[in-house]
């Protein structure tokens, strides 16, 4: 059994494309062509070159000596925070903008929560000289002013999503509606391993460069390609999908997914989808999602905007229900502490999303000889205000 | 015989009205249905509200949000519809997104639909291939007609597949848009209507999206069997309440 997507676009029982007919031609065009386009030599060449020259890959696999000493195990940090724009998100937007060009599209739309994916999309649109419209919840626009300004500097138009709860899920709804209204010239760059097939698989493939590099780098440092564990935070789950990708079907490598417990899994203010979600349909995908008994999608909560999504990618839903992945949820408080600790021990200020992954070492014990790779998905610059307020810095 | 099929055999253009259950007030469902029938509407789409209605524009989304705030649920709607068949004969269709139906249990949902007298379903995010593979037998077992959408971008080949899976009518979306967003029909749209007409499908077509008055109704039904009004009716009841539904309907039917 494989944990990769199957021919019909499912991971176990999760995935598929539950979309209105209005979206079918767009999604079908992408589905029927994405693998062939990605295999083209010219595509691969351009993608790899941009990742190297523009994004700054490969990112280091850094042995965190002091952090490792403190927790009595060997911890490597995969430094996605050093990517251009400050997080792994750009790996996917580079891939998708090239895909859009191959499909002959000239207008790009995207959704964004905290603004990281919006910035990464606006960045590649500027790079390619393409029109860019980013949908963002009205509430998030207020909370994330610096990223809104960055997108504007990069030439993107930021459109407030005023419907529903006015956050990420509504921004996604608005982007989908835009795509329905503009079926011919527009490509929708989804920012995570969510949405209808082929998006989860396509985004995972673009992010898989993370584990591809880990294999090579770990071989150099430890003489073997496989760590004992790969750890990543999961909101929609794109950085995790990239970090797990080449290890999914290798049972020797433990997969640890860290979700945001918010103020506590049972507090009513949480984003721990594996613990709180039930199977359902969100944004065109069958997956685990947080919802009422009546099937209405509920609003999650996390101090980290990037983990604040009521669903999880279908790959992760399958990793959870099959038991292949170990799922841990971390509260706001423990995440914030872990972020501060990494800053003090290693001189790296992580994004609060990533801080959740770092927080597991307090409770999840590893053997002394275990090699644990943590995907350091993003840097903390965007979160400075939250850190300042939280710690009264 | 299923009431929708019977209605489709009548020799005139059909007018369907959509409303969101639970809007403007939680208990308006029965009154809206009864008054629509009295006003001479041919069939009714009852919108089961959803938190994230992807295919709908702002008018229907806002009415759904309000309906959910008012306390509308799947269970509540079925309670309201219990006994409706003692009051009306008009064909009734539930239009809802797939997730609430999945949570209710697809078979339980179908069974309940049959027992309260629902004739058909429109589930925009249940794709035709998934329906065909997994649910068609179930829907048929409970006498429910499932209605699929087509758009100007749908290929002839796919339209023919949808036609083969359908057994009632095809919901022809007038333009590439979400609900409530067009203003009249242009040349392009008329060409599309004609193209579909020329395919000689076995199922008649009912046009939806962008119909709001007698003029657009007439344009939409030049080639099609009927047309559906949604957002315009929601706007009307939002503004005027549900006391005088017949004037809205008369206004649409004025020229027909």
From TrEMBL, chain A:
Pfam families with a match to the protein in the record: PALP
Name of the protein in its database record: Tryptophan synthase beta chain
Subunit and interaction comment: Tetramer of two alpha and two beta chains.
Cofactors (names): pyridoxal 5'-phosphate
Superkingdom of origin organism: Bacteria
Family: Belongs to the TrpB family.
HAMAP family in the cross-refs: Trp_synth_beta
Record-annotated Tryptophan synthase beta chain-like PALP domain positions: 56-378
Cellular-component GO terms for this entry: cytoplasm
Enzymatic reactions: (1S,2R)-1-C-(indol-3-yl)glycerol 3-phosphate + L-serine = D-glyceraldehyde 3-phosphate + L-tryptophan + H2O
Residue ranges that the Swiss-Prot or TrEMBL entry lists as coiled coil: none
Residue numbers carrying N6-(pyridoxal phosphate)lysine: 89
Keyword hit for Lyase: yes
Enzyme class: lyase
EC numbers for this chain: 4.2.1.20
GO molecular function: tryptophan synthase activity
Role: The beta subunit is responsible for the synthesis of L-tryptophan from indole and L-serine.
TrEMBL record, chain B:
Gene3D superfamilies: Aldolase class I
UniProt-annotated catalytic positions: 45, 56
Keywords, comma-separated and alphabetical: Amino-acid biosynthesis, Aromatic amino acid biosynthesis, Lyase, Tryptophan biosynthesis
GO molecular function terms listed in the Swiss-Prot or TrEMBL record: tryptophan synthase activity
One Pfam entry name: Trp_syntA
The EC number(s) this enzyme carries: 4.2.1.20
SUPFAM superfamilies, alphabetized: Ribulose-phoshate binding barrel (SSF51366)
Highest rank taxon of the organism: Bacteria
Catalytic activity: (1S,2R)-1-C-(indol-3-yl)glycerol 3-phosphate + L-serine = D-glyceraldehyde 3-phosphate + L-tryptophan + H2O
GO cellular component terms, A-Z: cytosol
Matches recorded under InterPro entries: Aldolase_TIM, RibuloseP-bd_barrel, Trp_synthase_alpha_AS, Trp_synthase_suA
Family of the protein in this entry: Belongs to the TrpA family.
PANTHER family in UniProt: TRYPTOPHAN SYNTHASE ALPHA CHAIN, CHLOROPLASTIC (PTHR43406:SF1), TRYPTOPHAN SYNTHASE, ALPHA CHAIN (PTHR43406)
Subunit structure: Tetramer of two alpha and two beta chains.
Function in brief: The alpha subunit is responsible for the aldol cleavage of indoleglycerol phosphate to indole and glyceraldehyde 3-phosphate.
Protein name, entry field: Tryptophan synthase alpha chain
Gene source species: Christiangramia crocea
Lineage of origin: Bacteria, Pseudomonadati, Bacteroidota, Flavobacteriia, Flavobacteriales
